[in-house]
TrEMBL record:
Pfam families: Hydrolase. This is Phosphonatase-like hydrolase. It comes from Nocardiopsis tropica. It comes from the Bacteria. InterPro entries: HAD-like_hydrolase_sf (IPR050155), HAD-like_sf (IPR036412), HAD_sf (IPR023214), PhnX-like (IPR022468).
Length: 228
């Protein structure tokens, strides 16, 4: 579904989220959060679901009431728990994701994979999938000054590194409201939500998504149609 009229600015850079957008989540994030905070409440679990896509340390700061030491400890436990799940083979690409990434590059577009995870976890996921070279750029919050989504920093860092002519030449794709807000704040002309992750179509549209797709495999056709 398309919420806004398309423009004709060619997309030079596509910034894609990982878990829930290009990589299957299947509850792994929530399981890792539960391992990191075994005493968590139902309210905390709801906050985790609502803030999917954000930098994980910022979520733990909220859950620990701003106690930085506890937040850092919980974040380390989360990253360790998620890493163990990845090492157990519970990490797989979403249907069509790999073909989409390769097609976008073949079309001459720069691709960037972004995440709210720490760099070590992001690299572990990429190795598990054999994706070390599948994208031109891979970014985590630390690569963009430390602020994750919904701030625009990772998108803007990708745009600077790619040398795009305008932020209007950027497309952002994600499965959460945080992904959408990050893309909008960066000025991307395409900010597409996908229905393969944490948030449903209504949530993505309420956040301001310009498009909602069934999955990332539909992205190349969207860009081709929009550019005529």
């Amino acid at each position: 579904m398309n919420r806004t009229a398309a423009t004709r600015t060619p997309v030079e850079l596509v910034v894609l989220d990982m878990a829930g957008t290009t990589v299957a989540d299947d509850g792994l994030v929530e399981r890792a959060f539960a391992a990191a905070l075994p005493e968590h409440t139902a309210e905390a679990a709801e906050h985790v679901r609502a803030t999917m896509g954000e930098s994980k340390i910022s979520v733990f700061r909220h859950l620990t009431g701003g106690d930085e030491e506890r937040a850092q400890e919980a974040n380390r436990a989360f990253e360790g728990a998620y890493a163990r799940l990845v090492d157990q083979g519970l990490c797989a690409p979403l249907p069509g994701a790999e073909d989409t990434l390769r097609r976008l590059r073949a079309e001459g577009r720069t691709t960037a994979l972004t995440t709210g995870f720490a760099r070590d976890t992001q690299d572990r996921i990429l190795r598990a999938l054999g994706w070390e070279d599948i994208a031109d750029l891979t970014l985590c919050p630390a690569d963009a000054g430390g602020r994750g989504r919904p701030h625009p920093d990772m998108v803007l860092t990708a745009a600077l590194r790619a040398g795009v002519g305008s932020v209007a030449a950027v497309a952002v794709v994600g499965d959460t409201a945080s992904d959408i807000r990050s893309g909008l704040r960066a000025g991307a002309s395409v900010v597409a939500g996908v229905r393969t992750g944490a948030h449903d179509a209504d949530t993505l549209l309420d956040a301001g998504a310009t498009h909602v797709l069934d999955g990332v495999a539909d992205l190349p056709a969207l860009l081709a149609d929009r550019e005529g």
